[in-house]
Amino acid sequence: MTAHPNPLLASALALAARGFHVFPLTPNTKRPALHGETRCPATGICADGHQGWEQRATTAPEIIRYAWEQAPYNIGLATGPSRLVVIDLDIPKSPDDTPPSEVAELGITDGRDMLDHLAIRHQHVVPQTFTVRTWSGGWQLYFTAPESVVLRNTAGRLGWKIDTRAGGGYVVAPASTIDGRPYTVECDTDPVPLPSWLADLLAEPQPVPRRTWTPAPTTGDRAGAYVAAALHNETRAVASAPEGQRNATLLRAARALGRFVASGQLDREEVEDALRGAGEAAGLQSRYVDGVVASALAWSIRNNPGAAA
Ligand SMILES: [Zn+2]
User: Fold this and answer.
1) Which residues, 6 or more positions from 256, have their beta carbon under 8 angstroms from its beta carbon?
2) CA 80 / ligand 1 centre spacing (Å)
3) 115: burial class by Cβ within 10 Å (0-12, 13-18, 19+)?
4) Measured between alpha carbons, how far is 4 from 293 in angstroms, rounded to an integer?
5) Is the Cα torsion angle 39, 42, 45, 48 positive or negative in sign?
6) 137 pLDDT above the threshold of 90
7) Distances (CA, A) of 132 to 80, 145, 189, 234, 307
8) Of residues 145, 142, 143, 155, the one with CA closest to residue 186
9) Which pTM was predicted?
10) Ligand 1 center to residue 131 CA distance, Å?
11) Which residue of 18, 167, 205, 241 is surrounded by the most CB atoms within 10 Å?
């Protein structure tokens, strides 16, 4: 088999042919290449209101061809419009990234072990489905979303090192690369339906209200303007933090913004994207930034459940 001259384009088209909605990510990152809510010029495609990546994700081959002929964009796959639930099984990011003792006692060393353990506990198995190996060595299991219930993203809810991406979420799709390491298809079969025992666990009432970030920073909406200002100030602090203070600034910003994720005033993806961009601008490794942001957001969501505006 000869290599495709544009493997990212080929993969984006193949995913779209399966009915998956894709959009471009900035090359070598997990960040949307499209402008975010806070930087919307309100022109062109956004003339009648901001169109986020979830709205702009597409299956149209001509749009995909046009985008991926411009630059080697990584591929974002919007799970909501694709009617997918993706289970993201991570591996420890560093030697200190160890499981809680009750998990360690079971011999669990990564998200895949954790999911297998969960399946055994519920007397089920994890069915074989479309599986992607991530650049960092984790796995992403693609399932079709249940019709009966609307599932949103979760972080650590099923267990240690297990996140899920559904409505309001996206994953980085195969052929994308980060620091030269690709996302690859490990099991190329059609996604099977999300097992009902997993759907039940994910559909349980959320401890935290999950609302999407609504455009708020207009005159007269002081709470919205306050949140937008916090996002702006925290990301600016990270991007401009001097060496020696970058890590602490990033952690503080992620925890501060996590409060608004917990209260539903900011969308988790938006905060992650903003902090990734700022961290990378400050010269922090994207992999490191992702780790800090994920743990700090989880911390603040745990510690600020449904905090008031
Ligand atoms: Zn816009």
Assistant:
1) 230, 234, 300
2) 19
3) buried
4) 35
5) positive
6) yes
7) 18, 17, 11, 33, 36
8) 142
9) 0.67
10) 32
11) 241
Q: How far is the CA of 270 from the centre of ligand 1 (A)?
A: 13
* Each residue's pLDDT tens digit, 42-70: 999 999 999 999 999 999 999 999 999 99
Q: Give 33 Cα–ligand 1 centroid separation in angstroms.
A: 12
Q: Where are the domains of the chain?
A: 1-204, 222-303
d(CA 82, CA 16): 9
Q: How far is the CA of 108 from the centre of ligand 1 (A)?
A: 43
Contact 84, 168 (CB under 8 A): no
Q: What is the pLDDT of residues 212-260, one digit of tens each?
A: 444 434 444 566 777 888 888 888 888 888 777 787 888 888 888 888 8
